[in-house]
Amino acid sequence: MNRRTGTALTALGVVFAVAASVLPASGAGAAALPPERELRQVVGDAMQDRLGAQARSGYGLAASAKLEILVEPQRWSANRGWTFGSSVFLIPRGVETAPVVSLFVARRTGSTWQVGLQGTPAFAALSHRAPSQVVKDAERAPFARTASPEPRAATGLSLPWQRNAGWAHWGVHGNSGASRPYNSIDFYGGDGNVRASRAGLMYRHCTSGGRWPHITVMHDNGYTTGYYHLRDTTGKPSGSAVAHGEYLGRIASLSNWQRGRCRPERAPSLRAVRALEQILGLPRESLVTRLGPPRPRGRWARQVPGALSYRDLCPVPGSVGRLLGQIEQTADGKLEWLGCHERFRVGPDHEERSVHTRLVFRARTDGVDRHVVVHHNELGRLPDVRHGAYCRTGRVRTDPDAGVTAVELLFERPLQRGETYVIEYGFGYREDGPPTDFYQRWFRFPAHAYLLQVQFDPAALPARCYRAWQPNVSTPADHLTELRLSSRHNVHLADTLLRPGIHGIRWEWD
Q1: What are the pLDDT digits (tens) for 32-91?
Q2: Cα separation values, 293 from 301, 446, 507, Å
Q3: Residue 10 belongs to what H/E stretch?
Q4: Cα(500)–Cα(131) distance, integer angstroms
Q5: H-type helices in 180-339, by residue range?
Q6: Which of 102, 302, 360 is nearest to 218 (CA)?
Q7: Of these four, 53, 168, 315, 361, which has the most CB atoms within 10 Å of its CB?
Q8: Which DSSP letter does residue 58 get?
Q9: 432: buried, middle or exposed (CB in 10 Å: 19+, 13-18, 0-12)?
Q10: Would you give the DSSP letter of residue 317?
Q11: For the whole prediction, is pTM greater than 0.70?
């Protein structure tokens, strides 16, 4: 393996890494598996062969350690014979480092997949031949340059913060804190905003699993910079162009904690504090125990045990927060969730057709008269059908770049404390819905009961279905139970006393 890796800069919550890779290509495997499962296996095998040793070294693991690989196809051709996506070695618990990731392009020929990983001649060749709905015309030249980056002295990269600003640093260390060589620097300070170190094309990784969202920017000189440990990330979809110095996200900034603006309370922030203990050589938990109990957040949200924020649950919290701010959400935490029943319909081309939701609430206080619902599609497709029942539609706000829609649903009257209320609403696509292999709901608050039904078209039935659960967006999904497809071509999950988190169903296609 011939890989050239530049300096990694850890900005107290954001890991910035730059790398130029020259990697051999990978052919397809011959296992007789369903196409999409075979794709994941072939991409996984290529990752193990070309990047497995680097990942184990960077994660501080033994050469024989088993690594889990997340393969995320992001675009498909109409005949599903071509695909483009991201693959990543998931970071084991207890390890603090940036993930090893790679984009890929794959083509299905006959019964096998040909896969090219980023930085390989195969990646450049497949990108050149792929249809435009899989690889955009503007991406072909940058993809090809990853196989032959310019000399190191000509990177033209800046540090990932505002120009003419200075940040401080805590010291140097290896990828995992204790590993060698020392190739990372912990920065803090400034305004906490992380910016692109050069213009390029931005890609998202770890969108359906992994402990933190990860962003890479592919530059015109063949180099790629990576940005990890981010929060409030840009709402732009994967594949968007970004300018030099454009905002990408915020760090879990210790400088904000020191100035008293906020304090580390959520799991990702506490992991940053524990990493700092290790870097400074302090006893384990010596800083964490000084933090004291968490502070309340919001008058009503703080009265709901275990309540989570959108930062904890969704990959685009910045976009969701902006839309909710425009609607001026006033009912947050004031409604107790007695029941949620959803029906998700999948079309004959593996596409999302519609989702219908019925919610049963009980008012925690007098006067609550509305509820705001959010729909998010990871591919940036906004639904073109919206409807509601037992309520009327108020303000509607959308973010096309992030694929987020927020709708205000107004009740018939203000509720009295203890009064129950039922609303129904739905989102859908008239035609050409986005491809899908999962449906999930973000539960910010506990719920008494949840029923999710997924209805498949008889012409396109999945090979396997699983119930999936995540306590937060940074934790990989656990496939708790395999679900059996009924004779009416649907599966369901039903549960009571749900704790906050991400609940849903995932499936694999033939």
Answers
A1: 455 788 899 999 999 999 999 988 887 878 888 888 898 989 999 988 899 999 999 988
A2: 16, 21, 40
A3: strand 2-10
A4: 41
A5: 254-258, 267-280, 310-313, 317-327
A6: 102
A7: 361
A8: H
A9: exposed
A10: H
A11: no
The predicted pLDDT at position 103 comes to: 95
Q: Token pair 């794709």 is at which residue?
A: 39
Residue holding tokens 């304090």?
263
CA distances from 432 to 231, 382, 505 (A): 32, 12, 22
Q: What would the two tokens of residue 353 be?
A: 């057709």
Specify whether the backbone of 125 is left (phi greater than 0), alpha (psi in -120 to 50) or beta: alpha
> Token pair of 88, please?
């990543």
Using the structure block, give the residue that is written with the tokens 């524990």.
274
Strand, helix or coil for residue 462: strand
Distance separating alpha carbons of residues 435 and 342, to the nearest angstrom? 19
Buried residues in 59-83 as b, exposed as e (16+ CB within 10 A): bbbeeeeebebbbbbbbbbeebbbb
| Cβ-contact 307, 444 below 8 angstroms | yes
Spatial separation of the C-alpha atoms in residues 356 and 424, rounded to whole Å: 7
> Which pLDDT value is given to residue 300?
41
pLDDT < 70: residue spans in the chain: 1-34, 94-96, 150-154, 168-189, 207-212, 252-272, 275-281, 285-306, 329-331, 479
Q: How far is CA 266 from CA 255, 270, 314, 324, 501, in A?
A: 16, 6, 14, 21, 14
3-class DSSP string for 92-125: CCCCCCCCEEEEEEEEEECCEEEEEECCCHHHHH
Give CA–CA dist 398/389, Å, rounded.
Answer: 21
Tens of pLDDT, residue by residue over 114-156, are: 999 999 999 999 999 999 999 999 999 999 888 877 666 567 8
Compute the distance between CA of residue 56 and CA of residue 18 in angstroms, rounded to an integer.
Answer: 19
| Angle, helix 137-145 to helix 121-129, in steps of 10 degrees | 170
Q: 415: Cβ–Cβ under 8 A, 6 or more apart, which residues? A: 361, 363, 366, 367, 368, 369, 421
Helices (H), 181-307: 254-258, 267-280
Contact 420, 360 (CB under 8 A): yes
Torsions phi, psi for 154 (to 5 deg): -110, 30
Angle value at C-alpha 33, between 30 and 37, nearest 5 degrees: 110
Name residue 156's amino acid: G
Task: Enter the tokens of residue 473.
Answer: 């967006």
pLDDT at 129: 94
Q: What letter represents residue 180's amino acid?
A: R
Q: Are 142 and 220 in contact (CB under 8 A)?
A: yes
User: Is residue 167 classed exposed, middle or buried when 0-12, 13-18 and 19+ CB atoms within 10 A define those classes?
Assistant: buried
Going by C-beta distance under 8 Å and a sequence separation of 6 or more, which residues neighbour residue 289? Answer: none
The pLDDT value given to residue 294: 47
